[in-house]
Design goal:
2 domains, 9-stranded mixed beta sheet, Rossmann fold, 11 helices, globular, alpha/beta
C-alpha cells in the first residue's frame, strides 16, 4: 500500500475502470449538491436507503467516484470509509478534504476488516462490475451483525426507452473506443443535439419512447431545471458514463433479488424501484 495525496493506494492502476477515472476527474463537482444548490444527492441517498441517523455510524461507501455522496455522508456525521477502483478517488479526496478514510482498492479484494461496518452503501456500481453476484457477496461480508446494506442496479426494461435503446445500440462500438476519443465525440454532438432532444422528450407521454427512436444517445435532465451550462455538463457527463463503461449489466427485480442467494444471516430485505433503477436493502441478523 502506498499513501498518495491522502489516499491509501492498494492498486496503483485502474483496471477496467479507467473510463470512470477520466469521467470523474473531468466532471469533479458536476453532481455535488454544493455545486447545484439543490439537494438531489442528499435526497437520493436518504430516500432510497431509508437510513435515518448516520451520525457516528461506521459507513463503507463503495465506488465513490468524485464524491457526491461522500460530501453528504460527511455532512451527516458518518464515520466514513470510501473507496474507488479508479483514479476518481483522488478527485474525491480533493473535493472532500475534511474527514473520512480514502482508498483506491478493488471491490473484490477490499483491504478492510470484514463484518465491521454499520452501513454499506454501493450505488451506481454493481452493473459496471464483471461479476455482480460475487461483488455483492464481498460487500455483504463487510456488514457487521445488525448492520445494513443498500445497493442499486440499473433496471432491465422490456419496452425500449430513450435511456436504453440508443445506449445498447451504440455500446458495441463505443466501448471499443479510447475513452478520450469518445469524450471528444460526445462533447461535439451533445450540445448541438440537446435542444432538439429536449423538444422531443417533452412530448407528453410519448417523449421517453420517441427519444429512443432517434437512436441518438443523450442523457437529458431538462426536468431538473438546472442552469443551461450545468444541464449541458450533466448531459455530456452521463452520456459518456452510459457509452464508455466496459461493463453494463442491468437486471430485472428477480435478478436483483438473486444477489441475496448464498448470503447467510439475512434478517430482512426489501427490493423496490428507486431513483436509478432497483434498490436492494438488507439487514444482517445480530
Amino acid at each position: 500500500m502506498n499513501l498518495v495525496d491522502g489516499v491509501e493506494d492498494y492498486l496503483g492502476g485502474e483496471g477496467y475502470a479507467g473510463n470512470f477515472g477520466l469521467q470523474w476527474n473531468t466532471f469533479q463537482l458536476t453532481q455535488f449538491d454544493s455545486r447545484t444548490g439543490k439537494t438531489l444527492t442528499r435526497d437520493r441517498l436518504l430516500q432510497n436507503t431509508k437510513w435515518t441517523d448516520l451520525r457516528g455510524k461506521r459507513v463503507l461507501e463503495v465506488g465513490s467516484g468524485a464524491g457526491r455522496f461522500t460530501e453528504v455522508f460527511l455532512d451527516l456525521g458518518a464515520d466514513l470509509t470510501t473507496f474507488d477502483m479508479s483514479s476518481a478517488i483522488f478527485a474525491n479526496r480533493r473535493n472532500n478534504p475534511n474527514g473520512g478514510r480514502f482508498a483506491r482498492a478493488s471491490l473484490y479484494d477490499m483491504p478492510f476488516e470484514p463484518a465491521s461496518f454499520d452501513r454499506v452503501f454501493c450505488y451506481g456500481v454493481l452493473q459496471h462490475t464483471p461479476d455482480a453476484d460475487e461483488a455483492f457477496r464481498k460487500l455483504w461480508a463487510m456488514v457487521k451483525p445488525g448492520g445494513r446494506i443498500s445497493i442499486d442496479v440499473y433496471a432491465k426494461l422490456i419496452v425500449p426507452r430513450s435511456y436504453t435503446l440508443p445506449k445498447y445500440f451504440w455500446r458495441p462500438i463505443t466501448t471499443r473506443m479510447k475513452p478520450e476519443t469518445l469524450l471528444k465525440v460526445i462533447r461535439w454532438y451533445v450540445p448541438k443535439w440537446l435542444p432538439v432532444d429536449t423538444l422531443i422528450k417533452r412530448v407528453p407521454k410519448l417523449g421517453p419512447y420517441l427519444g429512443g427512436l432517434t437512436f441518438i444517445p443523450c442523457w437529458n435532465y431538462f426536468y431538473l431545471k438546472l442552469p443551461k451550462d450545468q444541464a449541458r455538463e450533466w448531459a455530456i457527463m452521463d452520456t459518456f458514463d452510459a457509452l464508455g463503461a466496459k461493463y453494463d449489466q442491468p437486471r430485472t427485480r428477480k435478478g436483483v433479488l438473486r444477489l441475496l442467494e448464498g448470503c447467510d444471516e439475512v434478517a430482512e430485505h426489501a427490493c423496490f424501484a428507486g431513483s436509478n433503477g432497483w434498490v436492494l436493502s438488507a439487514r444482517k441478523a445480530e
